[in-house]
Write a structure and sequence with these properties.
Length: 522
């Protein structure tokens, strides 16, 4: 009987290993995200020709740009191989790229984030918090810091994940549990945060462009999902802590702590830099409050006194950039990393140079989006899809939950979040708007699914780096080892987020300032 049991266990491991290998092969077989957009653009061109020749069209109640009224509108498929379409496509290539919303927002914010990260401010801040963390709170703090580190892009992957292992070792706890907890927070909690991060304006821009296929005046704000993501920060911290301490750590083999050291505190220069940064951040926040809170404040709407529709909200990208830039500069001065203005500009140049792959991706994503919108295929698919879903009664909460699960599955194979949303937003945002669901709701559902499976996606850019961190403490660790370790986090994050979403949906709570759950069905 014992031999049979061992054989069954071996077969089970073999099945899991084969499944993981299959996922990796399929993922590696996919083209580069930029190439994917080229292929999608070509498919759109061919499909538009076929649909136009077949006379495909849809009629619906919607916004008529010619009259400016809601009335019955008929939309026909546009042949992108027609002479007028070809002339339009070749003359708008540059404007498609330069007007793509994600380009300007990401570049602007990166100027500030690049300085804060380049001076070492973000890394020093993380190390300082980790160094003073008490034993009982170590797991929760590591997960929480992982989530919060997302406001500075990849800092959490490079700094916090290895720090998590060192911190756990200092407390005589298994370093791989520390790695897992940090990686779960950084990657699995990618969309949660107490603050607005660099991804929020990028997603908002893509969602806005998709929503304007239905309503040309619709705008999704960068703070559109803030309430939900704020609460999610505590949810993911709690789940990540419980999974680490109850499921992951008890399963790990004993570890030799003879080489374990102590977590080093930051240097004298770094401490001075942190003080300078803290003071400058407080002064900046105080000035911003004076410009926002008084009834007739400069950054309020001069006519209505409103904050949501005001110069402050219109310029939120710039103000976010300053929130990173100012403390980053003062940290650099205090830590003696920055000596003059040339050092600041050099850090900005370095940060922007790191966006080269993003620029290539955005160029082709912009062309695909422009072709897709011009062909009217997005409108036809959204109207037809909405009508079908209405006819079968598959709407509301069940539809959104299935969308979350679908996104989570796709994320395993296409790990670049901006690429996936650029593909999915033009289809699902207008379709769900026709079903009475707001673009903000569709966006938050996407972000739930996208974040939940980041930690088990072999093609996620920092996954290989995490495998290397694991191998430092377990020479036999590989992709399968990391995925099997992180899978409980992924499942629990997904289930926890869905439960939170269901409660949020049933209570009808706004997802962020001025961001309702529902949109008047058209």
């Amino acid at each position: 009987m014992e031999k049979i049991g061992v054989k069954q266990k071996s077969e089970k491991k073999g099945f899991i290993a084969r499944a993981l290998d299959r996922v990796e092969r399929v993922g590696n077989g996919l083209p580069d995200p930029a190439t994917l957009f080229i292929l999608l653009a070509l498919i759109t061109i061919v499909t538009s020709f076929i649909c136009a020749q077949a006379g495909v069209s849809v009629t619906y109640e919607g916004y008529n740009s010619a009259t400016g009224k809601i009335e019955e509108v008929t939309v026909n498929a546009v042949n992108l191989l027609a002479p007028d379409s070809i002339r339009h496509m070749v003359t708008t290539v540059v404007s498609n790229f330069t007007s793509f919303f994600a380009l300007g927002t990401v570049f602007t914010i990166i100027l500030g984030v690049g300085v804060a990260e380049g001076t070492g401010f973000m890394a020093a801040l993380l190390k300082k918090v980790v160094a003073v963390t008490p034993r009982k709170a170590v797991t929760a703090v590591v997960v929480f810091l992982g989530i919060m580190s997302n406001i500075a892009s990849s800092t959490g992957y490079v700094v916090l994940v290895p720090l998590g292992a060192i911190l756990f070792m200092a407390f005589k706890r298994h370093p791989i549990a520390g790695l897992a907890a940090a990686f779960a927070g950084v990657s699995g909690g990618w969309s949660a945060n107490l603050l607005i991060g660099t991804n929020d304006p990028m997603f908002a821009g893509m969602s806005t462009q998709a929503a304007q296929m239905i309503d040309p005046n619709y705008a999704v704000m960068p703070i559109a999902n803030w309430y939900y993501m704020f609460v999610s920060t505590f949810l993911i911290t709690i789940i990540g802590t419980l999974v680490t301490e109850k499921l992951i750590e008890p399963r790990l083999a004993p570890f030799d702590f003879s080489s374990a050291g102590i977590v080093q505190d930051i240097s004298v220069d770094e401490k001075r830099g942190i003080r300078f940064a803290g003071i400058s951040a407080l002064v900046y926040i105080a000035v911003m409050l004076l410009l926002i809170l008084p009834q007739n404040a400069l950054l309020r709407n001069p006519e209505t006194g409103d904050i949501l529709k005001s110069p402050f909200m219109s310029g939120i990208i710039f103000f976010m950039m300053l929130l990173f830039l100012i403390p980053g500069v003062f940290y650099g001065i205090g830590a003696r990393v920055i000596k003059n203005d040339k050092d600041v500009i050099a850090l900005m140049n370095k940060a922007i140079s790191g966006l080269s792959s993003f620029m290539v991706l955005i160029f082709f994503a912009a062309q695909f989006t422009a072709c897709f919108n011009y062909s009217n295929l997005g409108t036809i698919i959204s109207v037809s899809g909405a009508n079908f879903l209405k006819s079968v009664g598959f709407v509301g909460l069940p539809l959104i939950i299935c969308f979350i699960v679908l996104t989570a599955f796709i994320n395993i194979f296409i790990a670049v979040d901006s690429a996936k949303w650029a593909i999915m937003a033009p289809i699902f945002v207008p379709m769900f708007m026709r079903l009475g669901l707001s673009p903000e709701l569709t966006q938050v559902a996407y972000r739930i699914g996208d974040s939940s499976t980041n930690i088990i996606a072999p093609l996620m850019p920092f996954f290989v780096l995490t495998v290397a961190f694991f191998q430092k403490y377990d020479k036999k660790a590989g992709i399968g080892s990391v995925i099997s370790t992180m899978l409980p986090y992924s499942i629990c994050f997904l289930l926890g987020w869905i439960v939170l979403f269901i409660g949020w949906y049933l209570l009808g709570l706004p997802l962020g300032p001025g961001a309702p759950l529902f949109y008047p069905a058209v």
